[in-house]
Amino acid sequence: MTDPPSTQAPSTQAPQTQAPQTQAIDWEGRYRDGATGWERAGLNPTFAAWRDAGTLAPCRILVPGAGRSPEPVALAEAGFDVTLVDASPTAVATQRARLERLHVKAQVMQADLLLWNPPTLFQAIYDQTCLCALPPAIWPDYTARLHRWLQPGGALFILFMQSTRAGGPPFHCDLGQMRLLFPESNWIWPETLPHTVAHSPGIAEQPAVLRAR
Question: What CATH class does 43-51+58-212 carry?
Answer without folding.
Answer: alpha beta
